[in-house]
Amino acid sequence: MIMSRIEAPRDEDTAATGDLVGRLLDGLPAEAVLTDPDVTASYANDMASFCPAGAPAVVVLPRTVEEVQHVMRTATALRVPVVPQGARTGLSGAANASDGCIVLSLTKMDRILEINPVDRVAVVEPGVVNATLSRAVGEHGLYYPPDPSSWEMCTIGGNIGTASGGLCCVKYGVTAEYVLGLDVVLADGRLMTTGRRTAKGVAGYDLTRLFVGSEGSLGIVVRAVLALRPKPPEQLVLAAEFSSAAAACDAVCRIMEGGHVPSLLELMDRTTVKAVNDLAHMGLPETTEALLLAAFDTTDPAADLAAVGALCEAAGATQVVPADDAAESELLLQARRLSLTALEAVKGTTMIDDVCVPRSRLGDMLEGIERIAEKYRLTIGVCAHAGDGNTHPTVCFDASDPDESRRARESFDEIMGLGLELGGTITGEHGVGVLKKEWLAREIGPVGLEMQRAVKQVFDPLGILNPGKLF
Amino acid sequence: MIMSRIEAPRDEDTAATGDLVGRLLDGLPAEAVLTDPDVTASYANDMASFCPAGAPAVVVLPRTVEEVQHVMRTATALRVPVVPQGARTGLSGAANASDGCIVLSLTKMDRILEINPVDRVAVVEPGVVNATLSRAVGEHGLYYPPDPSSWEMCTIGGNIGTASGGLCCVKYGVTAEYVLGLDVVLADGRLMTTGRRTAKGVAGYDLTRLFVGSEGSLGIVVRAVLALRPKPPEQLVLAAEFSSAAAACDAVCRIMEGGHVPSLLELMDRTTVKAVNDLAHMGLPETTEALLLAAFDTTDPAADLAAVGALCEAAGATQVVPADDAAESELLLQARRLSLTALEAVKGTTMIDDVCVPRSRLGDMLEGIERIAEKYRLTIGVCAHAGDGNTHPTVCFDASDPDESRRARESFDEIMGLGLELGGTITGEHGVGVLKKEWLAREIGPVGLEMQRAVKQVFDPLGILNPGKLF
């Protein structure tokens, strides 16, 4: 729908592309405008599978707000679609290029402008890498919680675009919770400031949160005020083995119902445990049907782990092993962090789903995924941010086998359908992008979809901002 | 602007009002439609000073979603403005009636539909009183943090409309942090569901947060999914006296910079302390220039209070008194809770401001307020959610004295101007309503204002939803 409102991409028209590049160079230094097709092609994709991508007409790498404004003014004048990008670690195709577009990479706007320990805020440009910020604030005794798996590479701008989560969310919430205010370049190049740098503020509609998770479809974030927390004590991890996934999910429910606040509560199913062992020979217990990792970053984590260990045993854990120290904790977490890489190695290709259900339905979700894996004769490994009910069912398949690929795609969709049936969402933290846009309507319904499209129209009347994503 | 798009109110036209009431009665029981002018007049105002209010044509008290839909369909058909109301405890005039409007009181939709300790959510209708919900979830070992001063009266729907804060915010954040999903009746009567009941979710734009704090100007919230937390231990309070407001603000900065996470960090200035003593003879130290209250609801609150007490002494506290138990803590909090009532008693009338600044600028804010009080020859008492930088400068004046009233109004505005100069916001938690709508543009700028108006237009093309508020 949105695509139809844009003039057809004119990348076949050299004169038009020349005009576009010429105009961009009026306000950007030459080194910030990339046109070599081999180079621009390398900006076509994020990390999602099964998501089509087009060939960009040009890639721009602005370093200032004014340069971004120039890019957007040019795009508006010429009606050229703009695809904003961070580190392209996304998993939904939201950063994939469309044919003839301007890829607007924010990676060169990577300055941390301020870290304020009294106000507990950081002010950053969008290209700052998550881990860079996390380490920088750590030096001030502060903590920026959001920690997507890609935290060593992904940018804050990308995190804001997709409202990223991570392992920390069960205690600390997602990126959205940490964005206080934004500077945004609108589609027509005007600069808008949203939100605040104060702890509280209710002046007008919350446009800040509207932009978080909007996948670059409403405007270009060029500056963000982020909330920080005091650095918590180092977390201590416990591992619990279960003879069934249902028992592990029961333990999760008991832990949360018991009022515990773990800093991490992760689940790896049998398939994932085996894949990690195969890849990294970590000596995880292959007889386990589900491995639960719980952590606490409290003042007395050993006491918290003891309480949670007892709940795991009550739920039928066959073994409960608390880590003695930070080093042992780190080893256990490494296994979890390797999960997706390990599952990728199983069959060469994976589709990572991101269905989040109410945590009371986690057991039903895992049981349903096992049924779907059987039905489609596929290997589907599940690792989950279990405390959030956020599962990452990962379909392992051979992309060179068309039938297996078809089954993979079908099982992926069926998993989303199951998530909705259980009162969940098609995406807990990875976003809609290209991958799930057909599913968005099913989740939010026709009225919601109509209002969302109307909001899009307000901020992007020409439909040039990341067209073909989300809707 | 919005008003001009509505047909002139026709309350002088008995036939038109008769038509309106008749149509409302087609879908509402007789007892849910109030037309006696004496009765409807009692619904004209919330608790704000200096905010004009009109005479409602009719007050409706629906009990079901379908009834709310009928009201909105009727309002759309007849182009009649609708003013949604909760308990009318607001302080910005956002719930004030306009002439000829339908007052849509949600107070009869007051059912708690679900409390789920595993998912840590509650599902409620908008008319549930904050304290009722807090107590109900408490019985399940859960905690709903938002605690505006009016918590014994105010409704969850009203809290959502104004994105209310309270004493808890320094640790637990504001209402917005606890709203996961909404059912909303749109201006034309259609029902829209936003958000989720899962811990995480990023499917589409965050319309939930757009509605939080929108003061009934985008739609009618008829159901909310709220996040809950485990009930923390009882908090323990410490009182610290300072010989200057600057020293107290310095203590606040040291506490927050030191990485402490108090569950409450409140400041009362000399004027407020004196007013509370005058009203309730609480024996607070009248020699103090500023009284700071800090609390912790941790597992070892005494240790936390000791650390914070030491920081207060380092900042120059003349006396530091930690409470020994919950009863002593409660006494100290009572003094804080009485502040506004006590300041009201000083001169008969008050204007309560709600300026929030970065907490590092709290000292500058208090100093500036003192300067403004002197300039306008007024008594301005300040109590503040100091940990948030959220001040409530309260102008005490005699409303029967036109000159003093004028000076009160001018000082009120000057305080907002000072807040903006210090990088703050004109409203930390009370909202814009009628009281501050002329100031909104100053805070968010012309581009932001234009986009906010355009968003309003999407949800309320006829301008019937709480017209004349916010913008």
TrEMBL record, chains A, B:
Family (UniProt): Belongs to the FAD-binding oxidoreductase/transferase type 4 family.
Pfam (any one): FAD_binding_4
Protein name: FAD-binding protein
GO MF entries: FAD binding; oxidoreductase activity
Keyword list, A-Z: FAD, Flavoprotein, Oxidoreductase
InterPro entries: FAD-bd_oxidored_4_C (IPR004113), FAD-bd_PCMH (IPR016166), FAD-bd_PCMH-like_sf (IPR036318), FAD-bd_PCMH_sub2 (IPR016169), FAD-linked_Oxase-like_C (IPR016164), FAD-linked_OxidoTrans_Type4 (IPR051914), Oxid_FAD_bind_N (IPR006094), Vanillyl_alc_oxidase_C-sub2 (IPR016171)
Keyword Transit peptide among UniProt keywords: no
Domain FAD-binding PCMH-type residues, every copy: 52-231
Cofactor(s) this protein requires: FAD
Flavoprotein as UniProt keyword: yes
Origin species: Streptomyces griseicoloratus
